[in-house]
Amino acid sequence: MGAPPLIAPLIALTKHMERIIYSLSNTKSTVLDDFTPTFALLIVYPSTHTTINLGNYLSPDAVHPQPIFEFHSSLAPPTGNRNRDQNPTLVVEVSRPLRPEKSYSIILTDPDAMSRRNPIWSEMCHWIVTNITSPGLINLRPQPQKIPQQQQQQQQQQQQQQGDRTLGNLKTPSHPLTPQILKSYLPPSPPPGTDYHRYVFVLLEGDATTAYNVSAPRERKHWGYGGVRRGVRDWAAEYGLGVVGASFFYAKAAE
Question: Where is the segment annotated Disordered (predicted)?
Fold first, then answer.
């Protein structure tokens, strides 16, 4: 006899959370502090028919193209309506109720650069997408035109000067956020002879009213923080972002 309809989703959520925590136990000490996953991440590389599955072992060729992804409340099932045989532009889907006071970012980081035994480049920033707020499909060009830093700063100042508006008791940006690739996708390329690297996707949640203040790291190496093992934890803390979901895979160079 199955679980009652209202209990089954809670059981599924508990098992899902336990699986994430167990699977990420090998990355927490160097990448993430303890967190409670409230979103499930589905990450797919359509052109290579590859799906990230919490620690699967992959070749660099399988994860070379920019992936597509969706994230949804852990109680909600994946939409299952992606045509993953195609290679579309980046697709983001949020299938939980709209939260206008929040924005989301997804990142990919390598805590094992140059190698796990000698992580002198750790962490290495491989990808950052920010300003994700709306449910439904959001399309981004894989390689958007780079906005000059001065122009980007002027746009941010204008948006801040126009202030925020209030929706009920919630503050939301005066202009809708536009998803933005802060760091273009750098395909994983572990050096030969360095064994498997961990590549970690992290979903971060922040305040939508300050989303435009989030900036790309100065450098990919150490995320610009100038020290071994410095990375996404430092960047998230600088901009007040919290971890709400994660996944990862292993990859190493062909022998």
Answer: 139-188
Could you tell me if residue 220 is inside a domain?
Answer: yes
Locate 34 and state its tokens. Answer: 């303890």
CB atoms within 10 A of CB 216: 19
Stated pTM of the model: 0.74
Name the domain count of the chain.
1
**Dihedral over Cα of 17, 22, 24, 25: its sign:** positive
Answer whether residue 64 is part of any domain: yes
Given a contact cutoff of 8 angstroms between Cβ atoms, the answer to whether 174 and 164 are in contact is yes
Per-residue pLDDT tens digits of the chain, which is 255 residues long: 555 554 555 555 556 556 665 555 555 556 888 888 888 888 999 999 999 998 999 999 999 999 988 887 765 544 444 444 444 444 444 444 456 788 999 999 999 999 999 999 999 999 999 988 754 444 455 544 455 556 555 655 554 444 443 333 334 444 567 788 999 999 999 999 999 999 999 999 999 888 888 999 999 999 999 999 999 999 999 999 999 989 999 999 987
